[in-house]
Amino acid sequence: MQFKLRPAIIFFLIIFSMSATACNSNGVSAPNPSDPKLIGACDNSLYPIKQGATWTYLSAGGPNGSFNYTDTVAETHVGGFTLTSKFQDFTRSQIWACQTDGLKALQLGGGSVAGISTQGMTAEFETLDATGISLPRDITAGMQWRYDLKMQGTIAMPGNQAKAHGIYTVVMQEMGKETVTVPAGVFEAVKLQANSSIEVAANFEGVDIPVKFNGVAMMWYAPGVGYVKSVENGDFGGAVFSTVTELQSYSIP
After folding, report:
1. 111-129 pLDDT, tens per residue?
2. What predicted TM-score, i.e. pTM, was given to this entire model?
3. Chain segment 38-53, per-residue pLDDT in tens
4. Of the ranges 1-5, 15-19, 44-48, 164-168, which one carries the lowest mean pLDDT score?
5. CB 246: neighbour CB atoms within 10 A?
6. What's the CATH architecture for 4-251?
7. Residue 13 pLDDT greater than 60, yes or no
8. How many angstroms separate the Cα of 182 from the Cα of each of 22, 57, 105, 186?
9. What is the DSSP string of 189-238?
10. What does the pLDDT look like over 206-235, one tens digit per residue?
């Protein structure tokens, strides 16, 4: 059986806990806007969080061919922000927390873990818990960090549907600095390596069906600009792919 990822943002940003009392709709702890420690916590040199900021990307080489999408910081507040990812046929929103140690995605977003599809099979998930950090506030040479999402949802096949659960894990490491040229310009960027895995289990009529994904991505972030490029190589359900995503244009207020 060959699986296909929906249009994806590895980030994971990925791409992406805190002492908070509120929860979002997926049950993940949300930041407390009244916490004075979080004022200024959204400041990140590699990912400028400004309400109305937009980044448009072209992704090519993946299971779904070439496609464009636009990320937008739709809303900001003390302790967090909402990022929307607009594709041709749909838009997904993702809530982020701004912690004292960096930025963390609290939900599945437009990325590969948000939805999985293949001929005759679809899967949708929501977040139960997010741990670790997506993008640290200060990244030092050779630094490593980890981010995990626990998920639950459903996997549907013709005439059948099953509950499913799983975990999405990313281990990232700083790999130095490089000059990167993309349609949006030439940037002096920080290079990051991301090793990701998704493991999902579902039970159809007493038969356990595992779904697994493993991938390695090289990502480049330009100070004051954000995510400018990634090269992802992965194996999803036995289907090997290589995806290149590049920044086409951006606007930061």
Report:
1. 333 344 444 556 677 778 8
2. 0.77
3. 447 899 999 999 999 9
4. 15-19
5. 18
6. Beta Barrel (2.40)
7. no
8. 40, 10, 26, 6
9. EEEEEEEEEEEEEEEETTEEEEEEEEEEEEEEEETTTEEEEEEEEEEETT
10. 777 787 777 888 999 999 999 999 998 876
Query: Over the chain, what HEC string results?
Result: CCCEECCCCCCECECCCCCCCCECCCCCECCCCCCHHHCCCCCCCCCCCCCCCEEEEEEEEECCEEEEEEEEEEEEECCEEEEEEECCCCEEEEEEEEECCEEEECCCCCCCCCEEEECCEEEEEEEEEEEECCEECCCCCCCEEEEEEEEEEEEEECCEEEEEEEEEEEEEEEEEEEEEEECCEEEEEEEEEEEEEEEEEEEECCEEEEEEEEEEEEEEEECCCEEEEEEEEEEECCEEEEEEEEEEEEECC
User: What are the structure tokens assigned to 57, written together?
Assistant: 């990307």
Q: Is the peptide bond between 116 and the residue preceding it cis, with omega within 30 degrees of 0?
A: no
Q: How far apart are CA 90 and CA 71, in angstroms?
A: 12
Q: Among 107, 122, 147, which Cα is nearest to 6's?
A: 122
Task: Give whole-number Cα distances, 2 to 83, 84, 141, 209, in Å.
Answer: 30, 29, 39, 14
How high is the pLDDT of residue 91?
A: 86
**Residue with token string 């699986």:** 3
Spell out the domain ranges in the chain. Answer: 4-251
